[in-house]
Design goal:
- A hairpin with a 5-residue loop joins strand 8 and strand 9.
- The protein starts with 15 loop residues before the first helix and ends with a strand.
- 5% of the residues lie in helices and 37% in strands.
- The protein is mostly beta strands.
- The strands form 4 sheets. A 7-stranded mixed β-sheet has the order 2-3-11-10-5-6-7, with no helix packed on it. Strands 4-9-8 form a 3-stranded antiparallel β-sheet, with no helix packed on it. A two-stranded antiparallel ribbon has the order 1-12.
- One of its GO terms (cellular component) is membrane.
- It is found in: Membrane.
- Its main location: membrane.
C-alpha cells in the first residue's frame, strides 16, 4: 500500500495547510484549438456542433457509414430547407451543387462521408442536414449546427490542474492526429 493510504484505499483527511497549498498551486490553462477540429460535440438534441473561422474551411462528417444510395445536404434558411448538394455513392463519389453560393466551395471525400466547405462566410452559419438514403431505401437524417467566428475561439479550463498530487494534462486535437500537451517542469507550466 502506498504512503498516506488507509487500509480502504481512501486518502486520509488533508491538514488545512496542505489544502491551502494545493489551492494555491492550481493552474488555469487557456487552450486555443483549431475549431475545425472541435467537432463531435453534440447538444441534447443530438445535433453536432461545429465551429468555423471566417475564410477557413470546415468538414461535416457523417456518423453513418457508407454505402449510401445518395446523400442530400441542405441548409435551413428561416423555416425552409434549401438543398446545397446531392452526393451519389460511386467510385469516385459524384456530386452536384444546386445552390450557387456554394459553387466552387464544396468538395466531397472519396468515401462520400464528408462534405468540405471552404472559404467560410458569416452567412454560412446555421443548421445543416444530411438526408441519407441507404441501399435498402431506408432514410436517416443527421444534423449539424455551424457557427462562424472571425477568430479562433479560446477554451478556458479554470482551476482543474491540481499539481501536488501529480501532473495532469490538457490536449487539443491537431490535423496530424497528434495532440498538444502543455510542457510541464517542476509541476509548473514552463514558458516556451
Amino acid at each position: 500500500m502506498g504512503p498516506g493510504l488507509s487500509g480502504s484505499g481512501v486518502l486520509p483527511p488533508e491538514p488545512p495547510e496542505f489544502a491551502a497549498a494545493r489551492q494555491r498551486n492550481k493552474v488555469s490553462l487557456k487552450v486555443s484549438c483549431d475549431p475545425t477540429h472541435l467537432s463531435g460535440l453534440s447538444g441534447a438534441s443530438g445535433i453536432e456542433e461545429l465551429a468555423g473561422i471566417l475564410g477557413a474551411s470546415i468538414t461535416f462528417r457523417l456518423e453513418t457509414s457508407p454505402p449510401y444510395e445518395n446523400v442530400t445536404w441542405s441548409k435551413m434558411d428561416g423555416n425552409k430547407s434549401i438543398n446545397i448538394v446531392k452526393v451519389t455513392f460511386a467510385e469516385p463519389c459524384g456530386h452536384q451543387v444546386s445552390l450557387p453560393a456554394f459553387l466552387n466551395r464544396v468538395n466531397i471525400s472519396k468515401d462520400c462521408r464528408e462534405l468540405h466547405l471552404s472559404h467560410l462566410k458569416q452567412e454560412d452559419a446555421g443548421r445543416y442536414s444530411a438526408q441519407i438514403v441507404l441501399p435498402k431505401k431506408a432514410e436517416l437524417v443527421e444534423s449539424f449546427d455551424l457557427q462562424v467566428s472571425s477568430k479562433y475561439p479560446s477554451h478556458v479550463i479554470p482551476d482543474v490542474l491540481p499539481l501536488p498530487s501529480g501532473l495532469e494534462s490538457a490536449f487539443c486535437p491537431q490535423q496530424s492526429g497528434s495532440s498538444f500537451y502543455p510542457p510541464w517542469k517542476d509541476r509548473r507550466l514552463s514558458q516556451p
